[in-house]
Amino acid sequence: xxxxxxALGVLFALIMLLIIYSSGSGSExxxxxxxxxxxxxxxxxxxxxxxxxxxxxCGNKTLTAHCHQxxxxxxxxxxxxxxxxxxxxxxxxxxxxxxxxxxxxEVDVGNKTSFRVVAHSSLYRVLKRPQEFVNKxxxxxxxxxxxxxxxxxxxxxxxxxxSASFPxxxxxxxxxxxxxxxxxxxxxxxxxxxxxxxxxxxxxWFTMVIAVELCDAVHVYGMxxx
Length: 226
Hints:
The protein is of the alpha/beta class.
């Protein structure tokens, strides 16, 4: 017991010395003060401005859409067998991605499509099936995204030709300035430069950010944890 008491006494003395030293030197045991002001607030995507971020494929009509409640329906097969189609169609706005179809899967994924976000790599798969993606839901607004160098050349011309063939098609492309904002957002959230790290931003990532811009509330169907 005497040895235990002595050990406790030594430990107490060391703690007291540490406290006295810290208070006397004016320094902190853990430098909390250095971390003050470093906490990064997430950007307010609502302030980006939808009108300046999306360029009309034809004409000069700006994107002014706004929804109070949106659902994102992913291209995941996890929705098969869920019978969530009715719940999805009840949403004010429904956002789908790339060439994910609804025909034949209405019971699980619904039928309504307010927006369809399409990557440059999926462009041909979407445009070669106009009966599924254009004529079936003429109210759909298409948002095409891709590297500015590609979008400003041949791909944009292809989209323009298709839009001319289908007057009811409303399409926009993500502007170069908005693409830069997406890159800056990625860098701020991950600490990595997208180009230097050779990272690839998925359509799901773009769709999430676009949904936050357009919608007050967002519900996601079919996205599973990584």
